[in-house]
Design goal:
With about 290 residues, the protein is an alpha/beta fold. It has ten helices and twelve strands. The chain starts with a helix and ends with a strand. The protein binds S-adenosylmethionine (SAM).
Length: about 290
């Protein structure tokens, strides 16, 4: 069993994180995904690693035809129950995002809340390739993750979440050799202690952009008749914290966009790794053409 299976397979993750994933926040993130992906009612969307469906269900409520894939049956049960109570239909599929069965099926794919970096780089390349293959020509893939350069600015190695007298202790460090965060969590609930370890690879926007031209993606691009030149990797960034820097970031973004390269900060924060809404980024990549 891998570290993320242990963390996401039980109920500690939702118990401690769910209060952060408020209705307001999830609605805001669904709005952002809708906009970044250029969605319209009736479009086919794949939510990769959809978790308990907080975005899938909201995108479906806006009229998208959503498929949510996750490895945790427990999360999918909850996602389905929430869909029923919202009166929306979502096709929830239990599976591994490293093995996608679809070809040319979706208008858009999203992967949200730092659910991208759990694997080795060759597996991450594979996810990008398969997501690309699952997209119709012209489709878009949005990844929401921490951008390491902004995360570093505010990195906080330790944090505690508390809910109803239970505690989740978190100790994180940046691993410069692997380019990601290695985090140890200790959940103390009802007199029991559980320990989890999770490594999250965080390729920054610049690095991710370079992944277009790795040997693996070139080989696959050739075999899939999708020359790497036709994959555009774009993004945006901004800070939700300082309107001033947000303004300059977004004008930099607008300029950079002309050159089809920038990255936008989507704002708010989940983990105590980085306080006050810093450190999460949104990168849209790649679009198929
Ligand atoms: C941090 S949660 C994010 C959930 C959701 N995207 C959201 O925004 O709330 C990470 C999710 O990744 C899922 N996951 C981890 N490894 C996976 C894999 N190999 N295939 C599919 N899902 C996976 C976990 O089960 C968990 O639901």
């Amino acid at each position: 069993m891998e570290g993320y299976d242990e963390l996401f397979g039980g109920d500690d993750y939702l118990w401690f994180w769910e209060p952060m994933l408020s209705e307001k926040r999830s609605e805001r993130e669904a709005e952002l995904a809708w906009r970044l992906l250029g969605l319209e009612p009736g479009m086919e969307v794949l939510d990769l690693a959809c978790g308990h469906g907080r975005l899938s269900n909201r995108l479906a409520r806006r009229g998208a035809r959503v498929t949510g894939l996750d490895r945790s049956g427990r999360f999918l049960e909850r996602a389905g129950a929430d869909a029923a109570s919202l009166g929306v239909e979502v096709d929830y599929v239990e599976g591994d995002m490293r093995e996608l069965p679809w070809r040319d099926r979706f208008d858009a794919v999203l992967n949200w809340f730092t659910a991208f970096g759990y694997f080795r780089d060759d597996e991450l390349h594979g996810i990008l390739r398969r997501a690309r293959g699952a997209l119709k020509p012209g489709g878009r893939f949005a990844v929401e993750t921490h951008d390491p350069s902004l995360l570093m600015e505010r990195f906080r190695g330790e944090g505690i979440l508390e809910r109803a007298g239970d505690f989740l202790l978190e100790r994180a460090r940046w691993d410069p050799l692997r380019g990601g965060t290695a985090t140890e969590f200790v959940a103390v609930r009802g007199g029991e202690t559980r320990r989890y370890e999770l490594f999250v690879r965080l390729p920054g926007f610049t690095e991710l952009r370079g992944w277009r031209s790795t040997p693996a993606s070139r080989a696959s691009a050739a075999s899939e008749r999708t020359a790497s030149r036709s994959t555009r990797i774009t993004g945006e960034w901004s800070s939700s914290r300082t309107p001033e820097s947000q303004r300059s970031a977004s004008s930099a973004c607008t300029r950079a966009r002309a050159a089809a390269s920038c990255s936008r900060f989507a704002g708010s924060l989940s983990q105590p790794l980085a306080p006050d809404g810093w450190g999460r980024g949104t990168t849209a990549a790649p679009s198929r053409s």
